[in-house]
Amino acid sequence: GLHFTPEIIAELRNTGHLTDEVTLHVGAGTFLPVKTDEVTRHKMHTEHFEIRLSTIRNLIDHLGEVIAVGTTSVRTLESLCALGWRILSSGSPDAERPVGQWEIYDVPAQRETGELLEALSVYLEQERLDKLKTATQIMIMPGYRYRIVRGIITNFHQPQSTLLLLVSAFIGEDWRKVYDFALNNDFRFLSYGDSSLLLP
Hints:
Blueprint: H1 6-14, E1 23-25, E2 47-52, H2 53-61, E3 66-69, H3 71-90, H4 113-126, E4 131-136, E5 149-155, H5 162-171, H6 174-184, E6 195-198
Parallel strand pairs: 3-5
Antiparallel strand pairs: 1-2, 2-4, 5-6
Helix pairs in contact: 2-4, 3-4
């Protein structure tokens, strides 16, 4: 995340906080506004990512404690559940195919997050892979139930963006209070602006 220098990361680690990394290939599509009358008709862009097996294991060990840095990291982490469901329902994560825009909503509510991540972990172990390379197109919007992420560190996003939809799905209508506070106190917006810690 742009808000974290190597010194800050080292300080976090030195004080006992476990940090981990995912590799994201973020394009301009991340910043495209929603231009359709109905948000469900917006075509989501594709973001490629890589995640290590060791990271998936760390997620399993720390469910309920995961704080993601950046909205793209949120999309990556939440996409893992759809990949786990692919394995449980068909035997393969089909990593050549991006996680579809609405695919994450098809994961049965009764399936536990740990079970989904464990399926992904076991698959990688059986295939002798130390990391997974794939892509996601998921769109997180109000009504989505977060499965992995319990906190988000992110900057302040522009109106009509899918990133603001993701934030509003996470903290509900409180997003308006947060953004009003930021505007009234001259916080800087967008990628190189100020950061915030969001908790549901």
